Amino acid sequence: MMVDSAEGMECAKLEELLVEETWLEALAGELQKPYAKNLCRFVEREMRGSVPIYPPPHLIFDALHRTPFHQVRAVIIGQVCSPLQFVCFFVPQDPYHGPGQAMGLAFSVPEGIKVPSSLANIFKELRQDVGCSLPSHGNLERWTVQGVLLLNAVLTGMHVSLLDFFGYQVHR
Questions:
Q1: Is 164 a known active-site residue?
Q2: Which of 53-57, 85-89, 152-156 has the highest mean pLDDT?
């Protein structure tokens, strides 16, 4: 933990949540910028608050943990509608409303959870465009092993305005 002397508030370091070395190297400069420090304070407050965070804190950076920087071959970015949308090429995504749905991977849900409509649309396009055989579930972990970075632009559903900028920086 680090202490923010300006507010006297403890703040979990983003590096403690983002442990994948290649991404830590690639984003080293970003993690020191003022918006990242504000994000850090915000995440810490949310983690201590009574409102649940989806995905849970240990899965916030799961997309980066599962797909190291040097292995990325394709990027799919999920975007929950936000008043601060920076670019319009993000794929609209169904928000996660309950525990056990969000996995830290855009569009992905654990096996046994109903496939979200946005993912069903992606599956439909893949089947029509390239003839892929598709799973009967919405767990996309296997895609990450193949180099598909499934990045949620806002990383959690609870901090849209701060995390959409961080997601945008990762995408850049």
A1: no
A2: 53-57
